[in-house]
């Protein structure tokens, strides 16, 4: 006999937790199904550990630019202390505190692997093989996240390389690390392990790093990584990977430019795919292993009856924790009968890359806005020319760029590079999501002497 709930959520990452908690707060009876740790990839093997590894290096970098402080510095980071800090940030890979939170949020946690067995029906197989059948009166929400994509490179899979789990969780610093990929994960983890003393080589197939961002971002970051001692190969790919010692020894990586790299660890950071294999979506006519396409109400396209929702990484709209949480909250509201529609994830998505310098962006790049037919005017200003930046540290640089819809006189995109710019981003997110006109922004006066004064300079450069 099936256990009945109003809503069954499969996957208890940040997205599933938010969807479930929102629905439960409104009075619905919610089951939250999880087969690993409550908190998902983000809490244990992605956002939290990577930022815990990056922050000490960034603090050191800031200190190295600060007269009176840099003279006090003695030597490199204390590796043991940084790794201990990382372990604390992932709660020792234990989800006890998350389970307590779920209880407080009135969620019924069902441990095991969830699988759709028909409309509104989910079967959950626990570790010991015991199966529980669940039935949802209102809806099933898929929030199963994503997993690393390993391209078809000869010998790669057999060599058992690192993915984000080892890349954020390693217990020791590899002497030589090769990173395949030039996206967000690649640059952050290349930076983190370099800061901790590894000899890092990054191999990117594209002409620059971070190709989804404004071109100056990738160029500046490649330079910053090189200055930090990372070897950066662009327009290069790995063609073959070999490993000695029965999959435990040294890696040999052959590149398209005929170079051969040798390494103690190899990190694959080449994108992610939706976790929909073995989920039973094929029984509903959806493609197993592919993202679940959704409408703006996060309803799975191609499934009748308004009962199947998908949010977070699994729908492929935006692979970011805060956007998954946003979608989760919207689904919770929709299930409570409130009018809600996702639009921030197509026009006002913010993202921070925690390298040093940081990268922060929201909305469209210039190229994306032009492609969307927006009448574009752009303005750019060097962050180093703002008084607040020079006070923050000697020789700090960076760039701020606004993409403006000239007709509506609103900002449709903003990008910043520089020290600590992540904390400056929310002002831009408010301007983009709120469609605040430039004439109103002129009266949003930034404090002196902060880096935010770059807003004034950008508006002046626009012509205000
Ligand atoms: C190295 C790295 C660093 C990152 N850093 C950031 C960052 O700084 N900021 C940011 O915004 N984003 C970051 N991201 C992206 C972020 O991790 C994801 O966007 C986020 O985890 C997505 O949340 P989710 O809940 O959709 O999926 P997940 O966090 O993947 O959670 C899905 C959950 O579903 C469970 N599950 C899957 N299948 C089943 C099943 N059949 N039955 C039961 N349970 C199941 C999984 O065990 C997991 O707990 C990073 C990613 C990586 C790889
Ligand atoms: N701070 C953050 O917000 C943060 C940090 C890490 C990851 N994330 C998110 O996690 C997701 C995954 O990150 P990611 O860096 O793996 O993905 P990504 O899509 O950002 O980058 C993938 C990289 O792999 C390369 N690549 C893909 N296929 C390839 C192939 N066959 N051969 C050679 N190169 C190939 C691409 O050129 C690109 O450089 C992203 O959506 C990202 O936004 C976010």
Automatic annotation (TrEMBL):
GO terms for molecular function: dihydrolipoyl dehydrogenase (NADH) activity; flavin adenine dinucleotide binding. Residues 349-455 form the Pyridine nucleotide-disulphide oxidoreductase dimerisation domain. InterPro entries: Class-I_Pyr_Nuc-Dis_Oxidored, FAD/NAD-bd_sf, FAD/NAD-binding_dom, FAD/NAD-linked_Rdtase_dimer_sf, Pyr_nuc-diS_OxRdtase, Pyr_nucl-diS_OxRdtase_dimer. FAD binds at residues 51, 114, 144-146, 313. Keywords: FAD, Flavoprotein, NAD, Nucleotide-binding. Binds 1 FAD per subunit. PANTHER family: DIHYDROLIPOYL DEHYDROGENASE, MITOCHONDRIAL, DISULFIDE OXIDOREDUCTASE. This is NAD(P)/FAD-dependent oxidoreductase.
């Amino acid at each position: 006999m099936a256990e009945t709930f109003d809503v069954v959520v499969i996957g208890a990452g940040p997205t599933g937790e938010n969807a479930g908690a929102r629905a439960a707060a409104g009075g619905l009876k919610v089951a939250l199904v999880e087969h690993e740790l409550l908190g998902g990839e983000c809490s244990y093997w992605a956002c939290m550990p990577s930022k815990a590894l990056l922050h000490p290096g960034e603090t050191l970098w800031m200190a190295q630019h600060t007269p009176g402080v840099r003279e006090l510095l003695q030597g490199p980071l204390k590796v043991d202390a940084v790794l201990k800090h990382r372990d604390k940030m992932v709660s020792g890979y234990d989800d006890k505190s998350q389970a307590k939170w779920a209880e407080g949020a009135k969620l019924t946690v069902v441990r095991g692997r969830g699988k759709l067995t028909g409309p509104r029906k989910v079967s959950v197989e626990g570790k010991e093989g015991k199966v529980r059948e669940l039935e949802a009166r209102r809806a099933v929400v898929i929030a199963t996240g994503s997993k690393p994509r390993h391209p078809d490179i000869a010998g790669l899979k057999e060599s058992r390389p690192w993915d984000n789990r080892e890349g954020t969780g390693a217990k020791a610093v590899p002497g030589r690390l090769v990173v395949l990929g030039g996206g967000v994960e690649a640059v952050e983890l290349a930076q983190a392990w370099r800061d901790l003393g590894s000899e890092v080589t990054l191999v990117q197939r594209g002409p620059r790093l971070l190709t989804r961002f404004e071109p100056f971002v990738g160029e500046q970051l490649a330079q910053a990584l090189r200055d930090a001692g990372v070897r950066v190969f662009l327009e290069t790919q790995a063609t073959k990977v070999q490993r000695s010692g029965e999959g435990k020894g040294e890696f040999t990586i052959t590149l398209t430019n005929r170079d051969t790299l040798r390494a103690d660890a190899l990190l694959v950071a080449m994108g992610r795919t939706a976790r929909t294999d073995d989920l039973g979506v094929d029984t509903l006519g959806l493609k197993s292993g592919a993202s679940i396409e959704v409408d703006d109400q996060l309803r799975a396209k191609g499934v009748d009856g308004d009962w199947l929702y998908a949010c977070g990484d699994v729908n492929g709209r935006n692979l970011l924790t805060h956007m998954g949480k946003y979608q989760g909250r919207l689904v919770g509201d929709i299930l409570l009968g409130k009018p809600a529609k996702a639009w921030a994830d197509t026009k006002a998505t913010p993202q921070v890359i925690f390298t040093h310098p940081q990268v922060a962006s929201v909305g469209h790049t210039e190229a994306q806005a032009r492609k969307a037919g927006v009448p574009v005017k752009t303005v750019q200003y060097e962050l180093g020319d703002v008084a607040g930046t020079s006070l923050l540290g000697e020789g700090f640089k960076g760039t701020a760029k606004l993409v403006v819809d000239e007709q509506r006189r609103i900002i449709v995109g903003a990008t910043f590079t520089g020290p600590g710019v992540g904390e400056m981003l929310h002002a831009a997110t408010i301007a983009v999501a709120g469609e605040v006109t430039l004439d109103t922004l002129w009266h949003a006066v930034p404090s002196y002497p902060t880096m935010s004064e770059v807003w004034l300079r950008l508006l002046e450069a626009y012509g205000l």
